[in-house]
């Protein structure tokens, strides 16, 4: 009865926890309200200033960091020549976090600050809830005046703007191993489209440069050739602007949606990630701004800060003026002042006024107490942001009226309108999201309730291990407190590295009658090597490590270690699988699995990172290049699935006497299949890490640890290995390179599972191996799995509760969207993806297969 009650307690705890997380997420990540409908010109006001351009070519190069265009090492030599001549006006466009494609495209088209929930929707390609079909944007403004728009490239645009394009050809943004075809699919439309006269806006979104960054970083040997390829496209379009009469009045915009960090990733707030290039190009600029050429290549004023820095959203009102349509209703951008020279004095003031009035409408909606009727004398007492905005508007109104009546003080009027608009932008951008505190509180309370239940369950099933009973609550409490410090969240890997070292030092000191002392020292040594495998976190993400500075420099050593890792798996499979069918069948099966897996990994590397193929293995790569990667991956997965089904059907006995030493643990066989799958989903340079993991696992198995100590050891190693494999609490660390193995098209469930597996390689290994350690020890009592489950559940309940409290308390913190929100998203993934699916789901299957730890 006690055991049944304990299992009921675990069930309630792990039902409450995901419910609490989803409730909190709904309150923490709401969609921000937007004005419906499209902006229209006021019929009672003066007509808008004449537009210098009739059409726009909007070319987005994904992850186009500012230095990729403006620095000495840039491949954009033609673009630089346009900047020097004055035909191109360069900027660094500040992109706010999250620096991923969907929210950045929203900023570039609507001028608004996207919701952080777009981080999740960015990965859900089939999602349609993020559509901008009914929201004002410069695309909608062009369509409103019966203009036609064409789009070629990243299919994010098709999802955001369904039915908006007269012609389109979308490409998936998540096949990050493709550097070439993904861009060729865009370029092949250029010549035909340039000759067409029926479009008013053409959008191209190139993905290859971003993919190169994800795979091998900003200093990849592929990076400069890709920049030169993009520069050639710029030249092709510029020449068309000059040569084709119907493009004479066309504005060409070259923009990055975001940048990348030193590791080639993005999603966070590092300077490289938030500093994309922005270049407006037209022969008209050279005529409008005589002598307006800028030095190029140039040196940044600060890191990645070239020329004038503008907000990425500023492109929206600027396009509105240059193309002659109203500023979109939800825009928070400010007209770029350096382009006002395209108009005469009175028109410049009119443009800034229209922008200021549009921002004023948002301020009035956001702050009902905004007062613009009082006198300027009230400004002396202004103390809040809203009161300051009111003062700036009054001053701007007074200056504008004076300018209209007397035609004087144009510069003062422009300055005041610009200051007011910029202050509006700052206040509205920094304003707290419309959090639903009721939902956030409900989620937090439910999480605390599940924490209390799990702690009660620990007391009911506690084990006499003073080391574990002291270390677990202390480390959990320290981890929770750490969630309130942004630097500790960004560099969380250090916590787990210290905790892992501290835990095994404690085991060494305890010694377990001198049996566990030497293995714990060996484990400490191996973990020290694993810590140096991949630099992670924010501060040192691009620093030297074993994978980049040793294995990539010496690919022959890398492949030797990879082959050794596969050989170990081959030996395990050949010795433990298909026991009833015979050793010969097991040998053939293991050979097929490993041959297809190794061939897939080799062919994948040959296409993805050919610089990692040693010269003596090039013939093998050439022999494999005609075999589709999808087929190789599917053959590997298929063989693994056959082995698992055979084991379930024929190898697992109907019943196993408890503690029967002669029965082979079927969970061990499952573990071999899981390792084969995990290696297939692992980045090439991380495959040798499995050799370290298996050495640590073997050493752990030689130690006489209690069941609770096994649970704590594998839990610590799970988090340790997550970071050792390159994980971090940043959206930019999500690895999509293996998310499409064996997938020929987008399937949200399969891609989500493969993404989870490829990013949680180490934790999945230790979650499964923890069950192996629990089920194979003959001294194990029958409540071990119960205790194991309740300790893990308690850890995730308590730590998520701390994360929720930190996000609630710090919801107005400067780093709420760059540090704490990503941490909450990772906490969701750890609980919903890892704990529920792996610890409880897969762990339960492993325990069932072992038949030694269930009650």
TrEMBL record:
Entry keyword set: Endoplasmic reticulum, Glycoprotein, GPI-anchor biosynthesis, Membrane, Transferase, Transmembrane, Transmembrane helix
Protein's cellular compartments: Endoplasmic reticulum membrane
Primary location: endoplasmic reticulum
Associated pathway: Glycolipid biosynthesis; glycosylphosphatidylinositol-anchor biosynthesis
Protein name as catalogued: GPI ethanolamine phosphate transferase 2
Domain GPI ethanolamine phosphate transferase 2 C-terminal: 432-851
Its biological purpose: Ethanolamine phosphate transferase involved in glycosylphosphatidylinositol-anchor biosynthesis. Transfers ethanolamine phosphate to the GPI second mannose.
Classification via SUPFAM superfamilies: Alkaline phosphatase-like (SSF53649)
GO molecular function: CP2 mannose-ethanolamine phosphotransferase activity
